[in-house]
Amino acid sequence: MAAAEIDLRTISRGLVIAPAGCGKTQLISDALARHDRSKPILVLTHTNAGVAALRGRLEKAGVKPSTYRATTLDGFAIRLISTFPQRAGHDPRIVTGARPNYEAIRDAAARLVAAGHLHDILSASFGHLFVDEYQDCSIRQHALVTWLAQSLPTAIVGDPFQSIFGFGADPLANWQTDVQPFFPIVGELAIPWRWNNAGAHDLGKWLLSIRPHLAAGKPIDLRTAPGGLQWIQLDGRQDDALRRAAAAVDAPGDTRVLIIGDSTDPRGQRRFARQVEGAVTVEAVDLRDLTDFGTALDLASPDALSVVADFAENLMSAFSADELVRSVAAFRAGKLGRPLSEIENTAARFEASRSLTDVADLLVAINRAGGVRCYRPAVLAAAQRALQLAASPGGPSFRDATVTIREQSRLIGRPLAKRSVGSTLLLKGLEADISVILNAGALNARNLYVAMTRGSRSVLVCSSSPILNPPW
Predict the structure, then answer these.
(1) Residue 177: what are its φ and ψ, rounded to 5°?
(2) Which end of the chain is less crowded, N or C, counting CB atoms within 10 A of the terminal residue's CB?
(3) How far apart are CA 356 and CA 269, in angstroms?
(4) 3-state secondary structure at position 452
C-alpha cells in the first residue's frame, strides 16, 4: 500500500513502518480527523508527554476530542485492572505502592483481556485501536496489545530503527519474531516531510537513503552528504573546543538547536550546557537530582546551607557553593570584614530561620545574581514548586513534595529551549532546526540515526573520521 493511500481506519490488523520525519503523527491526525462514527478511536502511546503532544497536534488540526481517547499503554492497563479488580485478581499494591510495579500491571492487564471478560465492553466502547511508537513496546506491552487486537481492529505505527530504549526486567518486543508475525506490514511512509517542509529536501532524501545502510551494518560516508550536513573533524587535540564551537552554532531568530551528547555521560551533557552560552539541559523524567535534594535537605542539620548551595551549584554556572558557605560562616563568627552580598544576606537569613520559604528565596537570589546563569531551569522550577507545596499550610514534607512534583512533571510535554542539550534517549521524538552530534563515533547505528534525524534544516556531526561504521 502506497503511503498516500494509507488510512489507519481501514487496517484491521497491521503495521505501518514510519521512518523519522516522514509524517507519522500526521497519519494518525488525518485518520482521526476523518473519523465520523459514534465510537471513538483508542490511541495508545508510551509517555504522558507524548499523549500531551499528540493532543496538542490534534487540537491544532481541529480534530474533535469526541473522536478519540488518548492515553499511555501503562495508564490504560492500570485503568483496566482498577475497573475490574476482582476479575484481574491482582495485588492492589502493584498500583498503589510508592512506585507502581509496571511489569506486574502489564501482566495483570494482559491476563484480564486474554480471559475474554472484556471483549464485549471493549468492542462496544471503541471503534478502533491505534498504537503509536510501537518500537518502544516491551514484551509485556506487546502481549497486552495482541490481546486487545482480538477485540478491536488494530493499527500499529512505528520504526524498528528508532528502537533505542529497552532496559530492565521487561525488554523490548523483537520486531521480527514478536511484532511482524502478528501485525503484518501494510505500508511504509517514504516522504521526508520534516525536511521538505523546512526547505531541506536534499538533506531529507540523503537521511532516508542511509537508513538501509545503517540497518544493514554498512558504513556511511559523511562526505557524500548534501550541504545541509556539516562534518566537524575532531583532531584528538582540541576536541572539546571543536565541540563547543559546534554547539555554539549560529541560531538567528527563533532557530532551535539540539545538542546531542553521550547517553552514558549526563555530567558531560551538563558540562556542555554550562559552557555554551544560552544552552540548557533536557532533563530525564525521573528528576533524580530534585528527589535527591528532597531526601538530603534536613532543615535541622548543621550542613543544611551546604546542601542547598550544592544543589544550586549543580544547576547554575558562575556560582560557588563552598564560597557561600565559608562567607556565611565567617559572618556568623564576626570575621567577614565586609558587608554581605544579596546572596549571602539571604543565606544568613536562612541559617537563622531554617525555613523552606528562605530556601526558595536563596535559590531565587542565586539565580538573579550578576553573571550567574541557570542551565538546568526545569530542575530549578520543579524545586521551587516543591518548596511552595511543602511550605503551604498542611503541606507534605519537602521530600514527599519533590516526588509529587516529579510525578506531575511526567504529565507535561517538554518545551524546547532555543539551545537544548541532551542524549538520544532524552531527545528522541523531538526536533529542532539544527542538530549537533558531539561524538558521532561513540553511537551505535540506531542512536546515530535518531541523532541525525533531529535537525530539520541542518546537522553538524563531530567525529574523527567522515566514515562512520557504527555497530547495530
Answers:
(1) -95, -25
(2) C
(3) 30
(4) helix
What SS3 string covers 186-215? Answer: EEECCCCHHHHHCCCHHHHHHHHHHHHHHH
Residue carrying C-alpha cell 551505535 = 444
Cβ-contact 439, 463 below 8 angstroms: yes
Place of cell 567525529: 463
C-alpha pair distances (Å), 455 with each of 256, 261, 262, 291: 9, 14, 17, 32
In angstroms, the CA 136 to CA 44 distance is: 12
CA-to-CA dists, residue 284 to 177, 249, 289, 290, 413, angstroms: 31, 25, 10, 11, 12
Q: Please report, rounded to a whole number, the percentage of residues in the chain having pLDDT higher than 90.
A: 79
Quote the CA–CA distance of 395 and 378 in Å, as a whole number: 22
Amino acid occupying residue 229: L
Q: Which residue has the cell 511552595?
A: 388
Helices (H), 297-397: 304-313, 321-332, 342-353, 356-368, 377-391
Residue 287 region, left (φ>0) first, then alpha (ψ -120 to 50), else beta?
A: left
Contact 203, 459 (CB under 8 A): yes
- Residue 176 has a CB neighbour count (10 Å cut-off) of 8
The pTM (predicted TM-score) of the whole model is: 0.87
39 closest CA partner among 125, 151, 154, 155:
125
* pLDDT tens profile 317-373: 999 999 999 999 999 999 999 999 999 999 999 999 999 999 999 999 999 999 999
Burial of 356 (0-12, 13-18, 19+ CB in 10 A): buried
**CA atoms of 419 and 434, how far apart (whole Å):** 9
Q: Whose CA is closest to 340, among 349, 363, 315?
A: 349
pLDDT at site 2: 44
> How many angstroms separate the Cα of 148 from the Cα of each of 82, 118, 120, 144?
17, 9, 11, 6
What cell does 26 get?
500526521
- With beta carbons less than 8 A apart as the criterion, state whether 413 and 47 touch: no
Q: Is the pLDDT of residue 1 over 60?
A: no
Per-residue pLDDT reduced to its tens digit, 209-260? 999 999 899 999 999 999 999 999 999 999 999 999 999 999 999 999 999 9
Q: How far apart are CA 298 and CA 308, in angstroms?
A: 10
Encoded amino acid at 141, one letter: Q
